[in-house]
């Protein structure tokens, strides 16, 4: 929709352009920003002109996704296994037409419980790289960056530059399960499991206000997995919105976690 | 930007989205369905890549190529995809179609087909509310469903909709698909309070903004009380609404209107209107609302003058009556069942939002071009409210982008009309336009009435009903538009279809400070049938009969009276009867398919059915006057005042005229509804487009045929010196009944709460089938809409505040949510309808929810009592069973 209060739009070409004037807001894909009235936004600073690479190989073998990398581009990145990114892209409510414009950074900054790029990068031990207004840079784990629904660890003048995924996590087997009130609808609960030696690291999103990571020993009985998930969810509270009742979300998260553990156990040598 | 091959000069505004830039540049093939990137109606190709133009910053399109549906082909030379959509009849209202065509083009092979396998995922960003998606799947697969219909083979054939080529190529002009230059735009200021007195409205800051031309408030409002709900008789709805009121009764009620030179400016100025409110006590629960001491929503109204049953008890309408002795019938019954069922608020989700444009012609005529199902009723009420002669008001309805009852209301026309008149008084003749946002569709215009339905049934040892008691509480929200009608209709055919010596019905429609409820497909029957048909299912279990057999023993047959809770209906008759066939067809069809095998571990399967009766025409008269003109070159022109909103009447009227005159339907030209030129028509509601307007068209065409025959028949056509013409009329006074039986087999996964439909069948008695493909499409679309309200859709309202304010949080069925439904036709001939036909557009919706609920009950052993049967509710329902 038209953003009726916006009076200026400028394309950023270097870092100096990211100093925001009052009322200015950074614009990446714009697919969320343009989907709701923005009564407080009077200017847009476009990040897509900065020429950030959609992805880069990191020296340690990890993968950097640029903040302006679109969901479609992210699926073309050199993943050790392409399954998880595709599953996460499919978990988004948005259609493939939106995925060609919407960005990884935008999904992180929107900080919705159902944000599938949050799920992906949290499950892979991602670190958010933030450009600070003093010209510096700080890094924060995705699980700390997203603090709650539509609340992130960004201070005035901060701009998300990228999310870095370490090699160690990228190489591990993963499994994903998802529940929603309709088959292709917005996620109500999403569980990604990452097989580590001796444990399964479960990342819970969708059903909780912020991503929650809980590790369970390999071979844990079903009841133990359910209990671990119940405790982890209870610590942050099960999320309630029109996409599912909290009691249902809690139960689905536990069920999905059990399935994820079973799948990773089946695949184990 | 290069738009469909034409360079566009000029630059977009900084915060502008591509959709409005395209439309401002003349590209009206892109539609606004949501403006939030969820529905896909605005899809375009940006340098060949499909995007939703409403969430694409317009600046990104500068210097690039933008292709809309209009750039892909023309009506004369459609693209392969466009041809597939037209040949498959893959549209009804067609408002979403350009977006589908663009999206499919991005995915299609050269022959215009889209490979199967990933369609549910690829098209989750394209919503269609009309078709139920089967015909769209056919288009994507390259299956053709229609014929052009040759001479003498028009009636009964799957003739293509006349608008097909225009709709699929983005050429069909919907209400607001007009040039935008010089048009003024309205933005409404809305109440944040559920109940409040407006103490003051300060418009000075808004008026001071350059480009703002007018601000209207309650001070400008005519004193006339009226209703947004429209009927043939304006006395059917309570007079409880003012154009702008100094009391607001729901969050979202309009308080003021800002008229400005652009929509963006109007939006900015609306935020500068300063309103001071004095909050008043509010009531949100309908049971509380009718309890003594509750805040009164319309306590200021006079009961007789406003036609409100009991303003002192928040009751807008009530019925209470008994035939026979229900308590005695219950006491002597061998089997009794009872229960209470509830239904949710649902939005129509027509892809086109409400919109209208008004201006005053040079001769002083007020002209309103609007997206309405009832142009003549809008004309008459505008004249009433604004104190004008109806002859000085002209209402034009272009093709309407979906209605489902939602456009049987006066919701935007009054505002633009008042604004246009005010401006004309000052010599400003610019048109004034108001287009609602999708959020306003959820928060400020009527939704489906939520109801609580309690049912008690008694039966003898053979399963014959001995007593039937139905108690209904309907929440009409802050205003009573359609409140009485929906309540009376809701308990009418649902109860009358059963033969029972002792019946009692108590029903009340109650005001609350919730958003208003209004007309919605089925008009109350679906809500009440959810209770009655569920209770019947329970009774069949108690008696030990199949649900089909229980119905056979209890339904009315020709010769029976149609009784609710008083004297039998006198204006309803069995013009035909196919309920027996429908029961047989549905039962056999479901029995004839695969046995009930669960799709995997943890699933259980079940079967269920429910039935529905509906009157073919609303009560107390429905009028239509049609004119048919035959030109010497064989062209036939049909002028009829009803509206085409995806119900397919344009096709039916072309078929009826062609059949009578012995020409090909392709020779028939239809003139859109215009109260300035068309004969009077009560409008497109109550499923009357075929049986009332169609009958008028048929009579006019037959009269022209008699004139032609008198001159020597069709061979004389070439020798005609002038036109032949005639006018036909029908008044809808005699009404018949139509029937639907829905049967489903489902699998339920208690652990997740998922209900998966394994087989779905609907048998319909629509009399003689005028157009099989179109009828099938109406049934499929009704079933899909019903699946939405049965399983997933719900407008959440807490303390009068709507929480689901867009498609993103409201689950309108996507293509992947709608399984195929087999549609079977009973063979009957109706004595009253055109050439034996009956109406069939609301009815398919009604039996689906109870059929599904009964199947879920069969599968899991627990009966659902609440809609929607969402996964979280089904999980909770079955939790006791799985542990």
Topology:
The complex is a heterodimer of chains A (269) and B (883).
Chain A: E1 8-11, E2 24-27, E3 43-46, E4 55-57, E5 63-66, H1 71-74, H2 83-91, H3 96-99, H4 104-110, H5 116-123, E6 127-131, E7 137-141, H6 142-145, E8 146-148, E9 151-152, E10 159-165, H7 167-170, E11 174-180, E12 187-196, E13 199-205, E14 212-217, H8 222-236, H9 246-267
Chain B: E1 2-3, E2 6-7, H1 18-24, E3 43-46, E4 49-52, E5 65-67, H2 69-72, H3 80-87, H4 97-107, H5 119-122, H6 134-141, H7 164-168, E6 184-190, E7 196-202, H8 204-207, E8 212-216, E9 247-248, E10 254-260, H9 263-270, E11 274-279, H10 286-289, H11 303-306, E12 315-323, H12 326-332, E13 335-342, E14 355-360, E15 366-370, H13 375-386, E16 393-396, H14 413-425, E17 432-435, H15 438-443, E18 447-448, E19 451-459, E20 465-477, H16 483-490, H17 493-496, E21 503-511, E22 517-518, H18 525-543, H19 547-554, H20 579-591, E23 604-615, E24 624-630, E25 636-639, H21 649-661, E26 668-671, H22 689-710, E27 724-730, E28 737-749, E29 754-765, H23 772-792, E30 797-798, E31 801-802, E32 822-825, H24 848-860, H25 871-882
Parallel strand pairs in B: 1-5, 6-17, 15-16, 18-22, 20-21, 25-26, 29-32
Antiparallel strand pairs in B: 1-2, 3-4, 3-5, 6-10, 7-9, 7-11, 8-10, 12-21, 13-19, 14-15, 14-17, 19-20, 23-28, 24-25, 24-27, 28-29, 30-31
Helix pairs in contact in B: 3-6, 13-14, 18-19, 18-24, 21-22, 23-24
Pfam family, one (chain A): FAD_binding_5
InterPro entries (chain A): Diverse_Substr_Oxidored, FAD-bd_PCMH, FAD-bd_PCMH-like_sf, FAD-bd_PCMH_sub2, Mopterin_DH_FAD-bd
GO molecular function, one term (chain A): oxidoreductase activity
